[in-house]
């Protein structure tokens, strides 16, 4: 049966399929780390089908949606390590490195991902890339450091574009940085983090995915990356 909402998002059917598969990774009674974005929104709609103790949200938007379903929200500081974090991505490579932050929630997402044992990433078939970098790298910056950080990003070969009218959940601004050469995702993630005034950047190579659930029109494929679980 065709999806009546598919015209609003050509990948909606794939996002719904991958979210349904992600549901099978959730264990009874767990506190789930929940990402942000349209793919995650498809997952949230299904969460009433499983029994969660509660959730740690990666953004205010996700928190609002979870609360609306009656799911208890926990502060990350009060729960210790989470067993599972589920999120989407803007790009993912064959090693599970990702670019995230299209929705601007990168910092909180990266914190919750770092505090989780496993990261399950849900993508549709438009997100898989041979090399990261076509999608701009979001760099969250303290407002006062915006121009300085922009100049440093230019020195690294990037073309930063100020995300006008957008303020992060932490009150910061975002520079969407095009044209960065991401030959070594871990190294560039660290280099960007070392610029004074940068809060976080959208390369997720240290917090790469353990499992990718990849949707296509033929179904959902599960890809496990050879990576130790975060202890
Ligand atoms: C938000 C993110 C999202 O995971 C990413 O933008 C993918 O979103 P969508 O599922 O809507 O394509 O990193 O900051």
TrEMBL record:
Substrate binds at residues 36-39, 87-90, 100-103, 127. Its EC number is 5.3.1.6. Keywords: Isomerase. One of its GO terms (molecular function) is ribose-5-phosphate isomerase activity. The keyword Isomerase applies. Pathway: Carbohydrate degradation; pentose phosphate pathway; D-ribose 5-phosphate from D-ribulose 5-phosphate (non-oxidative stage): step 1/1. It comes from Moraxella nonliquefaciens. Belongs to the ribose 5-phosphate isomerase family. The gene is rpiA. One of its GO terms (biological process) is pentose-phosphate shunt, non-oxidative branch. It is an enzyme of class 5 (isomerase). GO terms for cellular component: cytosol. It catalyses: aldehydo-D-ribose 5-phosphate = D-ribulose 5-phosphate. Homodimer. The active site is at 109 (proton acceptor). Catalyzes the reversible conversion of ribose-5-phosphate to ribulose 5-phosphate. This is Ribose-5-phosphate isomerase A. It comes from the Bacteria. InterPro entries: NagB/RpiA_transferase-like (IPR037171), Ribose5P_isomerase_typA_subgr (IPR020672), Ribose5P_isomerase_type_A (IPR004788).
């Amino acid at each position: 049966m065709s999806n009546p909402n598919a015209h609003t998002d050509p990948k909606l059917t794939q996002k719904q399929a991958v979210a349904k598969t992600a549901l099978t990774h959730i264990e009874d009674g767990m506190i789930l780390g929940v990402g942000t974005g349209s793919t995650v929104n498809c997952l949230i709609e299904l969460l009433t089908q499983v029994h969660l103790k509660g959730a740690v949200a990666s953004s205010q938007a996700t928190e609002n949606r979870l609360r609306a379903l009656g799911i208890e929200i926990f502060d990350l500081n009060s729960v210790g390590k989470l067993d599972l974090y589920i999120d989407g991505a803007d790009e993912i490579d064959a090693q599970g490195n990702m670019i995230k932050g299209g929705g601007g929630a990168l910092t909180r997402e990266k914190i919750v991902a770092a505090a989780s044992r496993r990261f399950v990433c849900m993508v549709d078939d438009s997100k898989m890339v041979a090399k990261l970098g076509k999608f701009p790298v979001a760099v969250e910056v303290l407002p006062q450091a915006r121009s300085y950080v922009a100049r440093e990003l230019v020195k690294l070969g990037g073309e930063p574009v100020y995300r006008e009218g957008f303020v992060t959940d932490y009150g910061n601004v975002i520079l969407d940085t095009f044209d960065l050469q991401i030959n070594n995702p871990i190294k560039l993630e660290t280099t960007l983090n070392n610029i004074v005034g940068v809060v976080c950047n959208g390369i997720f190579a240290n917090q790469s995915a353990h499992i990718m659930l990849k949707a296509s029109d033929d179904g959902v494929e599960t890809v496990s990356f050879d990576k130790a679980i975060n202890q």
